Amino acid sequence: MADSSDAQSLEQAPVYQPPSRLQTGEGGVPVAHIKSLEEYWTMYEQSIRDPDTFFGKMAQDELSWSKPFNQVRYGDFKRGNVSWFLDGQINVSYNCVDRHALTNPDRVAIIWEADEPNQHTHITYGQLLEEVSRIANVLKKYGVRKGDSVAIYMPMVPEAVYSMLACARLGAVHSVVFAGFSADALRDRILDAGCKILITADQGKRGGKTIQLKKIADEALGACPSVQRVIVFQRTGDPNVPFYPPRDVWWHNETANQRPYYPPEPMDSEDPLFMLYTSGSTGKPKGVVHTTAGYLLGAHITCKYVFDLHEGDVHGCMADVGWITGHTYIVYGPLSNGATTVLFESVPTYPNASRYWEMVDKHKITQFYTAPTAIRALRRLGDDFVSSYDLSTLRVIASVGEPINPEAWNWYYTVVGRERCALVDTYWQTETGSHIISPIPGAVPTKPGSATLPFFGIDPAVLDSQTGQELQGNNVTGVLAIRSSFPSVTRTVYDSHIRYMDTYLKPYPGYYFTGDGVTRDQDGYYWIRGRVDDVINVSGHRMSTAEIESALILHPACAEAAAIGVPDDVTGQAVVCFVTLKPDITQDENTIRTAFVSTIRHHIGPFASPKRIIICGDLPKTRSGKIMRRVLRKIAGGDVTLADLDDEQALKNKLGDLSTLADSNIIGSLVKKVIAH
Ligand code: WT7
């Protein structure tokens, strides 16, 4: 990101015009929904000036209601009582399944691409309606009612999608827990949400490896008295997988005996649809709550306009359904639009680095969505893995999760997009539910590294982080906040509205605070600069330093720990931990480091594994005892050399003011440790 962060390089950033074929329809491609920058601005300005008319019309035109709403919008960020489409009734599952199944039962809803490259299945909308209904009936049979929470801990199989849509169908609130999370993390999430039912699988498959989902779930459930029933989908059929009736029931036995229709429950617009846990500045993950109509509208219209989705499109979002990207852009957005969505069980490098491109070619994918970390990793492996495939069906290629550096952008644009696709860098968060800043393919010129301009209804403000004052005009840098509510913004944190207010709405009263730094350049384009809080973003996976520290401290050898994020060429950021040991620890450092890594894997999950653990005598602290993370970040990032240690001025230039440091000798020993390690 370094090359895109100073004002001068932003001024010189190249500009790419939208591909003309999207504006003209040349070569038989569908003409974009929004064909010019003027058209975008006209719609955008209306969405800000008169959101009631704009979103009222969108909601009526794009969604199917069982009872029309009476009022478009109520409440605001000041009071934390945001609500949309009041008094309306709607069912998300009906919108994503029935309305397409009833008119086009044979249209393909899901293409499931299994871990093994030669295996894939098509599921039509007609079949989807039957499968969703069967599992909805099973849930009903086991006592799930409107408003109950259901935990879903599943691999990337169609049954994960059926489960989510079945919850939506009967009004249960799903809490999908990413299958890479550990037993402890799963347990905490089930307990927090008070889930009655867990839906899981015997095992998962990923990149040729087997994940012991049921075993992990059993470990978690040992401490979850609220869970009365576990529905187990058989992915591999391994006979050694533990199974404990009557608590455990098999998915295939249960669904086989149920009617393939279940009437969709009319839900109030503001009823919760799902919760999804995400990391914030503290150790405890938050259950971000999304509601029914506003979320669905956000998912639907961003999918339509940001991916320029048209009838017959095959939407390839490579995320996992365990994250918000999977919720919105594998499940709810594409299905609400009646598109075909790709569900990919594997990883981009299995069995080799052509996997994505072979899939685009085979399934004729039209929109392809992945993260910068995957693009950087594939770029390193060379163009040969891409060049022999027919990627001519692609119209929009997209990026999400962290800022995409210009080198990766250019490679994606040229080698994958072949300079004929729009590349959209989509900025959003778990909390926003859908894209908030992103180019529109046929309309907005792009600059590599910038998420460009706000989506409809998003009114961004750049604030001075200290004073909270709005920085007016262009060429300003500060923190990113949103001025007024939009349909898909999170309404609360599950069972913790105070935390919701404290995290998002109180830091800058009247605004929603994103937690990201931002620059608005001379053209009004937004450049996201990464988190300004203690959140680390590794390969687009969000975690908090406090969460990692809380895990480390559980190990008996750990006295104190500080986790920080350092820049990494492939993963964006990587976790580095500084740890001090308790007295009388006699094991060698390598053994202890290995034990610390497994502690983190055990309490959070493998994806949170630190890149380095530095065992040190002490941590740099202020006189009042606060750990000086900024100093650790610089030292871990290799900014300080041995020569700097004898040069007070150089040290000051690199580490900033050290006058509050309690023990100044500590810097030297830390630098030596980092270099020696
Ligand atoms: C954080 C949200 C939303 C989907 C995936 C992550 C960072 C996300 C971008 C982007 C720069 C980005 C931000 C944000 N982020 N997309 N296009 N450019 N930064 O969701 O786990 O809720 O993380 O990811 O820092 O706050 P999440």
UniProtKB/TrEMBL annotation:
GO cellular component, one term: cytosol
Xref: PANTHER family: ACETYL-COENZYME A SYNTHETASE, ACETYL-COENZYME A SYNTHETASE 1
ATP-binding as UniProt keyword: yes
CDD domains linked to this entry: ACS (cd05966)
Region Disordered, residue ranges: 1-28
Gene that this sequence comes from: ACS1
One of the GO BP terms on file: acetyl-CoA biosynthetic process from acetate
Comp. bias regions, Polar residues: 1-11
Top class in the EC scheme: ligase
AMP-binding enzyme C-terminal domain segment(s): 547-626
Entry similarity comment: Belongs to the ATP-dependent AMP-binding enzyme family.
Enzyme Commission no: 6.2.1.1
Residue span(s) of domain Acetyl-coenzyme A synthetase N-terminal: 40-96
The protein, known as: Acetyl-coenzyme A synthetase
Domain AMP-dependent synthetase/ligase: residue ranges: 98-485
Gene3D superfamilies, A to Z: 3.30.300.30, N-terminal domain of ligase-like
